[in-house]
Amino acid sequence: MINTLGVVGAGVMGRGVAQAAAQKGMRVVLIDIAEEILTAADSEIRQALRFAGMMDKSRESEPAEEVCQRIEFATDLKALAKVDFLVENVSEKVAVKQSLYPQLDSICKSDCVFAVNTSAISITRAGSWTKRPDKVLGMHFMNPVPMKPLVEVIQAHHTSDATIETAKQFLTQLGKEAIVVNDMPGFVSNRILMLTVNEAVFVVQDQVSTARDVDRIFKGCFGHKMGPLATADLIGLDTILFSLDVLYESYNDPKFRPAPLLRKMVDAGLYGRKSGEGFFKYPNLHQAAANKAIQADNVAGKK
């Protein structure tokens, strides 16, 4: 039984994991490097809980205040000394994660499992940055975390079967199901999804079609709830680019070469929903909130 969960990184994914765990009765320690980011995370978790309560009239929802009381917000990694299980959600930059894991290794309890929430980075490599590679695994949550019933769990070269069972138990507590896959860059979901998104960007770049019509084809012809370009906006075009760069480097395969249009959009600050514009515009997103989201998602890069 996981009683206290550590979550490192208060961006979109970190907030979602913290909220989902607190809703299931776990204590949560949510870490980021700036108080203003944690304040924004607190506000957005409360708003998400209130919205969820309004939408789900089928059952009595626990008041948002009571759920949030189970979340401790901290800027000091030492607050993680008491956690039973840890989910890391910092930037998809290898150098950032590599500098973080030795610190976590020295602070957390020896039996604490480290779950790397990554789109493409090798879990075996992440385990090598610690003295507990048998207790390191990948845990690829999907956005929005509280609403997605499945989680891709990645077993690295040294990950023990006991660690996998602990991860499954944790996800069961969250009301989610684990699908266990082996460790290769991109795993299953992003090895396929990033190619689809990237090719959709090439289609727009080559003026074969508009972003709107590309997504209409996927929704209308294939029954997808969301087209590849709207999905990219939801994930964040910067995250898509980071993931493709990792896949390109890992496989040395030109099929993962990012579309020049994608890189241009990221350079222009068009990240998708969190910036208010990507392949589509999101006019209801206030720029101040967008800036906080971007800062939260990339904050670890400032260490």
UniProtKB/TrEMBL annotation:
Pfam families registered for this protein in UniProt: 3HCDH, 3HCDH_N
Site for Important for catalytic activity, residues: 140
InterPro entries: 3-OHacyl-CoA_DH, 3-OHacyl-CoA_DH_NAD-bd, 3HC_DH_C, 6-PGluconate_DH-like_C_sf, 6PGD_dom2, NAD(P)-bd_dom_sf
One GO process term, biological-process aspect: fatty acid beta-oxidation
Domain 3-hydroxyacyl-CoA dehydrogenase NAD binding, chain residue ranges per copy: 5-183
3-hydroxyacyl-CoA dehydrogenase C-terminal domain location: 186-282
GO molecular function, one term: NAD+ binding
UniProt keyword GTP-binding, yes or no: no
Domain of life (superkingdom): Bacteria
Keyword annotations of the record: NAD, Oxidoreductase
Record: residues binding NAD(+): 9-14, 32, 92, 97, 119, 143, 274
Protein name: 3-hydroxybutyryl-CoA dehydrogenase
Organism: Pseudohongiella acticola
